[in-house]
Amino acid sequence: MKFDIISVIRENRKKMILGVLIAAAVIVVSLISHYVYEHIYYVSTDDAKVTADLINVSPQIRGKLLEFDGDEGDTVVKDEIIARQDMGNLPDSNVDQSLIRAPIDGLIVKKQANVGDNLSPDKTIALLADPNSYYIIANVDETETRRLQYGQKVDVSIDEYGSKKFTGKVQSVGQMSQDALKPNSYSKDGKYKKTVQKVPVKIKFDSSSNLKGKFTIGDNASVKIRVVNK
Prior knowledge:
Layout: H1 2-41, E1 42-51, E2 54-57, E3 63-68, E4 75-76, E5 81-85, E6 99-101, E7 106-111, E8 118-119, E9 126-129, E10 135-141, E11 153-158, E12 165-173, E13 198-205, E14 220-226
Antiparallel strand pairs: 1-10, 1-14, 2-9, 3-5, 3-8, 4-7, 5-6, 7-9, 10-13, 11-12, 11-14, 12-13
């Protein structure tokens, strides 16, 4: 009887070990399959940021800034007066030159002048972004760029929005790597240090998304570019 109990324990132990090994094998196979699938169907990177085309707002004349009616985050419409300068010795007929107007419908993303500052025509007092022109710049390994082309679908995650997903399409693939203009890097013994170069890829959000005021320029992002259609 004693030997029967020992045999049962040994048999159960063998079954448990076998079960653990099978479960581990299933997990490993699943992980490998997922990695292979992701590598075949997607090019992915976490090295990406939100950006937009920025427009400078500048004065027409020299003079002290008397008023600035706008703060970062405010929306403006084209030709709206957002600031006013001291006209100095200019005749009253030139009053329009002292008014600083918004060049586009946009969002004030950066103020670069304050009331009391002395301005000149080459001075930028604010940066505007078109709320509908936000896009992603993703830096992709040079070894993956041959798989990219215009119009490929992209899944986008923005750190600011957690698990919320956005969609877009590849707009263009850069023709110059990030470090193209930097001098070559060498080790202490004079050997060339070869590193994988990053190529900027522009990703335009789908027009179906309501993007107005949605993002902050510089937000970190992650992208998955579908390079193979099922």
